[in-house]
Amino acid sequence: MNPIYKENERFERIDFKLNALQKGEYESCVFVNCDFSNSNLTDIVFSECEFTGCNLSLAKLSNTALRDIKFSDCKMLGLQFGYCNKFGLSFRFENCSLNHSSFYQTSIKKTVFKNSKLQEVDFSDCDLTSSLFDNCDLAGATFMNTNIEKTDFRTSINYTINPEINRIKKAKFSLQGVIGLLAKYDIEIDTIN
Length: 193
What we know:
This protein has one helix spanning 179-182, and strands spanning 4-7, 10-12, 24-27, 30-32, 45-47, 50-52, 65-67, 69-72, 91-94, 112-114, 132-134. It has one helix and eleven strands; from the N terminus they run E-E-E-E-E-E-E-E-E-E-E-H. The chain folds into two domains: 1-97, 3 Solenoid (Pectate Lyase C-like); 102-187, E3 ubiquitin-protein ligase SopA (Pectate Lyase C-like, 3 Solenoid), CATH 2.160.20.80. The strands form two sheets. The chain has a seven-stranded parallel sheet, with no helix packed on it. The chain has a four-stranded parallel sheet with strand order 1-3-5-7, with no helix packed on it. The mean pLDDT is 94. It is an all-beta fold.
């Protein structure tokens, strides 16, 4: 079957577990309340698309192109973004649950994560330069050999980042968040004035 090309189309309440999304390119398309869980999205190209209220948990992303994508109110558990096509990889997340996902070895500078759950997410060997984590829960997230220079964590919680094994120059943290930078030293910090 030849790959298809879809532009400016709206897909609503479709269960792609039952009927797989056709291979091809989707440009400026909108997906609303669709179920992609456990779907195979290998080799599909998404450009300037929006996903709202969708379930993409455990979808296969081998060589999937995600270029300028907006995810809102989506369930995205256990996704392996490191398998995506690296060319033009860019997205933003708002009110999403990305627990247990991995961004291993991705270059996703200036990415916005807003009001999202990022528990147990792997950011190892990732370039997050100038990204924004706005009101996110990063409990158990892994930062190892990660570039978080100029990244803003001021409104986020529960992160633990070792400054010795990550690039953190000019990253922004709140006073309470500094505790997450000192966790490896097993010291007690008293907040009594």
